[in-house]
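Trying the structure run again after the queue cleared.
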Amino acid sequence: DMKLIFVIDSVTQIYTNGAALIMSARTFTDFTTQATFEIKKRDLFKLDEGPATQVVLTGDEGLQYYRTIQIMRRMELKADQLYKQKMIRGFCHLYDGQEACAVGLEASINLSDHLITAYRAHGYTYTRGGTVKEIMAELTGRRGGIAKGKGGSMHMYCKNLYGGNGIIGAQVPLGAGVALACKYLGNNELCVCLYGDGAANQVCTYNMAAPWKLPVIFVCENNRYGMGTSVERAAASTDYYKESSFLVDGMDGPILMELQTYSYHGHSMSDPGFSYCTREEIQEVHSKRDHMLRHNMASVEELKGIDVEVRKEIKDAAQFATTDPEPPLEELCNHIFYNEPPFEVCGTNPWTKLKSISQSS
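Done. Tokens:
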């Protein structure tokens, strides 16, 4: 889908989410309803033909993408603030700067498809259907969190999103397993399996996915640094899209993509990210191309209106995330299994027993 190629290449500069109220206030005679964008030719490996070099974007799509990216950006900035206020504890890996990857991928698949990623999962939790309130409450460990306050930053789940996985690269074989289930069930669905450049050198699931012709898209989100180490210092070859050691049929079987992106934060909140990035590098990735405005697809006021709505939504979610109660101790062991009768779980000593109640819906 060519929307994917366009969005990943330039939505960083468009930003996102639907603005129905604002859309109704303008007439389509005032603005261009759609525009054609030239996309630079992609580097290929063992593929005879790549994606087209032109893509059409409608004004509605552009505004939707803009609002979604703005939601993710403001949500991560608020998480940064709450972490520094000690309202969020433990590990916290932010996604700001990389939002276009998530928006582009989601524009090219269906919500009925499946997705699994590493621990930088807040953005994908939102695009998969989680609400800002649920995500923020999970970050603060509250009962209204998307994992009921038990998962925190790295372990968020919703329908067809399988985490949020804390072990580097461990989600890749799990994603292949999800794809195997899709093939076994014959449901015409696929799995997008994401990992970072830091995990690229230990991923070896491709060779299993290929002969089985699994419906999986392996995606390396290359943000140039793996836990603070630049890709040039970590790997002999930094062309991660070439790491598949098989010839793929892109229309029938697994395929590997590399998305070149950049994180505006360090590896995690414990890493400031400034000691190993040059000022010139940061300035380069912060420069933006205002595609929507330059092609007369939206007005400055229209985009500012979306920004106002987004800021209010984030503010309300943060208020909920800091006032919602924490889950009670008796819920500690709930939801270990799905749809099973209640059972006892051993505590920290032989005399302590906890009760586990399964999720049944």
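The chain is about 35% helix and 10% strand. Worth checking whether this holds up in the mutant runs.
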